Every structure is written in C-alpha cells, then in structure tokens.
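Dear all,

This email documents one entry for the complex benchmark we are building for the journal club exercise. For each entry we list the sequence lines for every component of the assembly. Then comes the predicted three-dimensional structure of the complex as a token string, followed by one or two observations. Please use this as the template for your own entries, and keep the labels exactly as they appear.
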Amino acid sequence: MLHGLTLGSMYAMVAAGLALMLGVARLINFAHGEFFMLGAYAFWLGYSELGLPYPVAALLAPAVMVLFGIAYQRTVIRAILPRSWHVQLIATLATSIVLTNLAIIVLGTQPKEVPTALSSRILDVGGFRMAWQRLLVLLAALVIFWGLHRFVARTRTGRAMRAMSQNREACAVVGVDVQRVTMVTFALSAALAALAAALVSPLFNIFPDMGTVLTLKAFAAVVAGGFGYVNGAIAASFLIGLTEALAGSYVSYAYKDAIAFLMMIAVLLWRPQGLFGRRTGI
Amino acid sequence: MALLEVRGLVKRFLGVTAVDQVDLAVEPGELVSLIGPNGSGKTTLFNCVTGYLAADHGRVLFRGRDLTHVAPHRVARLGVARTFQQVSVFPRLSALENLLVFLQQHQEEHTLARLIRTPRLRRLEVEAVERARRLLDLVGLTDKADAAAGSLSYGQRKLLAFAAALMPDPDLLLLDEPAAAVNPTMINQMKSHILALHRQGKTVLLVEHNMEVVMDISQRVVVLDHGQKIAEGSPDAIRRDARVIEAYFGR
Amino acid sequence: MRRASALAFIVMVVAAPWLVAAAVPRQQRYVLHVLIFTVLFAALALSYDLVVGHVGSLSLAHPAFFGVGAYAAAILATRARWPFLADLLAAVLAAAVVAALVGVPLFRLTEHAFAVGTLGLALVASIVANNWVEVTRGPLCITGIPKPVLGLPGGPTLAVTTLPGYYWLALAALAAVVLLYRRLTTFRLGRAFHAVRDNEPLAGAAGIDPLKYRLLAFTIGAALAGGVGALYVHYLSVMCPEEMTVALTVNLLVIVFLGGVGSLRGVLVGAVLFTALPEVLRLAPTWRLVIYGGLLLLVVVRSPEGIESLLRRASGARAGR
C-alpha cells in the first residue's frame, strides 16, 4: 500500500510532465523516461560521487535537467513541432535510444544504489513501519503538486500554458510567446522528472535502461487521466502505482509491468477520453 | 420509389443540432441541389447519407435499403459515389491510378485472386484502364495520366476527384461543392459535365454555394438553415421564397 | 542492358560464398556470418515495411511477432522434435494468429495511440519471454536448437549444416519475401494499401475497407517476421529474450526510414548498409544504437521533405491542409 503510494508519487511527477508537454505542445515525448534516468544519475553524481549533502544533491538534479530540457526543446523539439506525428514520434524515440545507450557506455549497466540516511531509518508508528524516505517522497510530492497547481493557475506563464493547451493558433495570434512557453514547459517537465528521481533514487536502484518502461507507464497514466489533463494524469498515476504494488504482492511480481501495460491498452480501447471524463486543456 | 430517401434525420454534435428532422427524397434521374448558409448542415447530411457519420435519429434509404448504420465503403459499393468539399485525391498515386482504385473494389475483391492475378482480373484491369483513360480525356487530364496526383493544380485535382467518382458508374452521385474555389472557366466546365451526366440519366445530389450554378442546372432545390429544411421547390420558386431570402440576407 | 546487369547482380549474390572464399579465405566464416545476418534482416525489414511503408501504420510491435515465431520454432524443434519445415510453418502461423487477434482491437486506435498501444504490446511480449520460464526458460535461453533439415516425411532430406548452405537457405527465404512483397505492393492490392495510407476517408469512398487492408498488411507482415524468427533461431541455435527488445524496433526503423520507406530497393539497401556495415566496422551494440538513434534524429529533424512527405497519411488531407 505504502509502496504503491511511493510508486504513484514517482509516476505522477513523471506523468505530470508528460501531460504538460502533450497539452501545451501536442507532442508525446518518448524520451521522457530518460529525463528521469538522467536526473537520477545527476543526483547520484552529486550525492555519492561529489559527496554533497542530500538536499543540495536533490536540487542539483532538477537544476541540471532544466538546462537539459531547454537544450532539448531548442534543438530537437523546435525542429519537429510543426511536423507530422510520425516524425515527432520517431524523433523522440530516437532521442530516448541515444540517451539510454550513451548512459550505458558512460556509466555501465551495473545498477547504482544511493542509500541515504533517511532511506534506512525506519519510522515506527504503533507497529506501522515505514522508511523516512518514503514519508519524504509523499510529503514532497504533495508540496510539488500544490506548487505546480498554483503555478499553472496563478502565474502569467502558467496561464499562457493553459491557454496554449486549449488553442495554440489563437495564442500565437494574440501575442503569446509560443516558443518561450513551450520552452518553460519542457524545462518544468524535465525538472519534475528529475525531482522525482532525486526523491525515489534512495529507495530504488538506478540503471540506464529504466526509461522506456517508465515512459510507457507515465503515458498509461496520461491516457487514463484524459490525454494531457495534468490533474487526471496525477490521479491516474497513483491508481497505477497502487495497482502495481497490489498486483506485485498478490498476483505476480514478474508480471506487474505487463499488467500495467495491458490496463493501458484496455483504457485506450474502451475509454479513449480517459477514466475521468472528457475535457480539453491541461 | 425514390432512389434516395432521407426520413426525419437528426444529427447532434455536443448538444448542437447540425441536422434537425430533415426529410429529403431524390427520384431516379433527378438533379437536385442542396443549398444553405455556412454551417446549415449540408455536409453533415452528406456524411450521414454516406456512412461517415452515424445519425442520431431517422433513416437513410437507398433503393429502399437502410443505409443508416452502413460503413462508408459498403455505401460506396452499393452504388453511391461522393466527392469531398476539400479536394481529395490520393497524392502519391498517379492520376490514372486514382481512377483505377475507385473501380477495383466494385469488381473482384478476393485477396487471393489479387495476389495470383487471375486472367479474369487482368482482363478487368485492361478494361478499367481503358475506362479511366476515357474519363481522363473527358475532364481534360489526358497528358497528366502518369503524374502523381499530389503534383496537380487545385483545379486539376478537383476534376480528377470528379472523374474518380464516375469510375464505378454510380447510380447516385453526391457532389460536395464541385464549383467552390475554382476559376470561372473551370466552373463552366464543371457545369457542363454535371449537365451531361444528367442528360445521360444519372441521379445527382449537389451541395453548392455558387447560386448561379445551382439555379442554372438544378431541377429542384432544397434549402437548409440551422439544420432544418426551410424550403424546397424549383429554382424559380426558391428565388422568390421569403424564408430563403431571410435566411441568406436577413441578418 | 538493365536486365543483364540485374542478372549479373543476382548471380553474384547467389555465388557470394565462393566469391568470399576466393577473396578473403581467412575470414570466410565471419563474412558469411555477416551476409546471413544481412539477408535475414533484409527479409525482416521488408515485412516491417509492409505495415509502416504501405499502409502507413507506425507499429512498434514487430519484435513481438518476430519473438513469437522464434520461440514457437525453438520450442517445437527442441521439445517436440518437430522437423524444420513443420516448425517454420508453425512459427509463421503462430505470429499471424497473434497479429490478427491483437490487430482487431489495436487498429481501433489511431496515430499516437496506435503506436503507444503497439509499443505496450511489444514490452508485454518481452516481459512474458523473460518470465514465463516454464516455456521460454526466461533469461536462461532456449539452447540446442538443431540445424535445419530440409525435406518432407518419407522423402529424401538435406541437412543444412554449413555456412554457405545456411546462406542459400536464408537467400531463398528472402527471395520468397521479395516476391510476396512485390505481389502485395503493386497492382490492385498495392493500390488499395496505398489508398488507405494516403487518405483514409477517401479510401472509404472508393469502396475500400481501411480496417481490412490494414489488418491484412499487419498480419502478413507479422507472419513473415515470425518466419524470419524461426530461421534466425535455427541459425544461432539459441533464442533469448533480448532478441525481441525495443532495440530491434530501432534497427528496423533505421533500415526502413533511412533506406526508403515503402520502397523495395530502399529497404534492401538499408538492410545492407545498417546490418553489414556496423558488423564490418565491429561496432559495439550500444555504440551502434547511439549512432542509429543519432542518424534517425538527424534525418527526421534536418531533411525537410524526407520522411514526412513520404509518410504523411490521411491526417493532413482530413484536416483540409
């Protein structure tokens, strides 16, 4: 149960970014899982290799990935945005493959473990035991989603993002800086993925090819949440995390991912508008 | 019996009623026009008749057969041909192939026969090529036969789409704005093509904005406004109809 | 003249084992191995192009069908001791049946959703291959798959044990695939496929059932991939779950897209370029994927007309652009 909530928080941060990109730029970023992977390695580098304290390393990862997200938007995304969905799909898939294999070459396939003080300290509340790190993940996730919600709802850029998700052409006409908003979206999405990585890395292993499966799970959440609707994607992520944890302990640990993907295909087929109904915008 | 009969057809999109209780009958050999201001439901009606949209209520009968929930490709094979408002061709097939593909599904469709290319199929193909060349001649695209359809001009593509619809020798021809956005010469060309079809006894239902074309060639005109049929009659009667004048110029 | 040069080319391809023996006697085995891989990948890429290039459905599920065929052949040959031709046929049928079954629901999805659905399917297939240990032996791999023996029950048999023998077997399979590919992609079938790819609503008006032709290409493509899978495991004599990962999809995408989508010659050239060349340059698989991904990215991003104009389907026409 608790494991499901941890997984859910992680998927939700990744899926929220994916949903933002889909909403604002109408693009499915197949390299999004690799953002998480790179964020995790950035955290590992800062914490284990450079010996930075946890909070610093945990903030270094998103900082690095913001730069990466901007670079990605400027080089790849800008070029493919006006093109057909075939091109976008192949380009982001190609990016994902390049990043995964570069990571294998540079860092090796051996999984990295990054235990922190909080991941081994156990909190015991009346027989209910949990690692402090998990509590941190849950609390941080809540704060992050609250912040994201405020950002999208209240700030100028956030409002521009919402407007673009509803009508891109009209935004360009009324003078919204479409390029800049797209860039902010990618930077924000990359930061979310990296934050998720920094939060859960002390609990799970880090390895180079963890991206593809994560992308697909996050996408499953985006689909179930109603294609590009951020709050829906976040809610669906927790559903997937819980299902996975339950399926893992009661059905079959080996097939938990397969079950998640089959559920995604089923939702695509039977409720293409998502589990929570139809709406437009992020 | 009417060739095409539409009874009490209703189509809604997210609460907006695009087609509202429309009745329409087209007799064999008739040339009927469907007119109305933008957004009055003409194309939606076409899409309901040809299987591209499922009507919410009402029925579509072709030769007495219910077409209401029949898929587009089946409607086409029953002998109803249509063109699209946006010029629609297969851009990467040649002009000749664009025509051939419109006839082949009405003939031998067995995959194995096509794979083996039976002698019968080869004969049919030779005949199809002859017919396609005659139609290309008719619309003046003889020398474009082997050009990719995507490389033709807008007007040429429009003529090609028109010729393609004629390939299977359909019993009913639905034309969606054949004269829109082409030059005056082309409009006259289209007009004479449609009239020639009519003289051959073809049944034609036409959606058109160009009033001159409509009034010149139609036997009967049906007027839609906000999805409802507001008038029906000869071109002369329609010209004088108060409700039609209101719908077009009243606001 | 063109006929003559084509004939010369075919003679050269068929005579390759002898040419190799004469030209590089010390590396004969290695070069033949590369040639066999190239031929098998060419056949596989053609089967993929039937789906991607000719009906315009960007499926990412091809490794799953390759894997179904490969495992069917491997299991039948090792446990049930089926003769080669029988397990080859079973592999083709198994892949076709799976494709037909999953194709019906999957083709209700369009564009992105179809691509994502097929990717999900490919991952599910690979998870099953890794974890259904009783059947696939999981990461332990199925080993000891016998060399193919051609022949019908009761008749004379011919064991394919040498590398040249295997090369000719693979070449015969490629020839069969090429013939089928040409039959499918020209004349009336090809026209119907291309109509569905170029403009789906208009195809409907032409009396073409888009689902039928999509499913046909998808199923035949899968069947051929299953057959190639069978040939592949009989050659390597092992089948492991790693043979059916996303990396295979990337390989195929590179061959098909950089070689020439929807073009027989393009795909064949792509297969030679992107199977033989990296082998000869002895690139590590990871470096190969980095370079492939980079090339794919570069072509898609930099060539303004390249892939897009070739692949654009009904979407543009439907929106009236």
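Observations: Chains A and B do not touch (no CB pair under 8 Å). The two ends of chain A are 29 Å apart (CA to CA).
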